[in-house]
Write a structure and sequence with these properties.
- It is a single chain.
- The chain has helices at 3-15, 23-41, 47-52, 55-68, 77-102, 110-145.
- By secondary structure, the protein is an all-alpha fold.
- The longest helix is centred in the last third of the chain and has 36 residues, at 110-145.
- The protein is elongated.
Length: 172
């Protein structure tokens, strides 16, 4: 595969939200995004910010997979909204717990109250963030394991594999 072909495939997979892709191509592209994202997190300071830019690549990938299932790419907003609500609730619970623990008025047992309050609210945070994690996992599995439509749909013809399978042999 030439360099230009690889750039074309990468552009189509990660930067274009139009068209359809099959399950195999989705999982290969998702694996690439997960590896790149985790490697970027190793870069101290700016790695997480750069990794956040990969969100657009995930949006394009999910949109094409939803298109293959005959659904609108906008459907992917639902799990993102659920996750945003979970994060908001988690941050609010955490902040409220710390504020209430700090202003509990028990000067003699401040350390114990602070530790107990923080631990109680940390448990609530884990539950809320756990819901967001399960939501993401269920959506990812649904997108990646559901068969696409085998016929023409409003988003185009059934996709062939973008990534070649095995070595290609050409006869002279």
């Amino acid at each position: 595969m030439t360099r230009n072909e690889m750039i074309s495939i990468g552009t189509h997979l990660f930067l274009d939200s139009h068209g359809r892709i099959g399950r195999r191509d989705f999982w290969l592209a998702a694996g690439v995004l997960l590896v790149v994202s985790n490697l970027l997190h190793l870069i101290w300071g700016i790695g997480s910010l750069v990794s956040f830019a990969l969100f657009y690549c995930w949006v394009c990938l999910f949109a094409k997979r939803l298109h293959d299932m005959g659904k609108s790419g906008w459907l992917q907003i639902a799990p993102h909204v659920i996750n945003a609500v979970c994060i908001f609730i988690g941050v609010t619970l955490g902040a409220f717990g710390l504020i209430m623990t700090f202003f509990s008025g028990r000067a003699a047992a401040a350390t114990g109250v602070l530790f107990g309050g923080v631990m109680a609210w940390a448990g609530a945070l884990l539950v809320v963030f756990g819901i967001a994690a399960v939501n993401t996992l269920v959506f990812l599995l649904w997108i990646g394991l559901t068969r696409g439509q085998e016929t023409l749909n409003p988003y185009g013809p059934p996709p062939g594999s973008i990534i070649p399978v095995g070595p290609t042999h050409r006869l002279p």
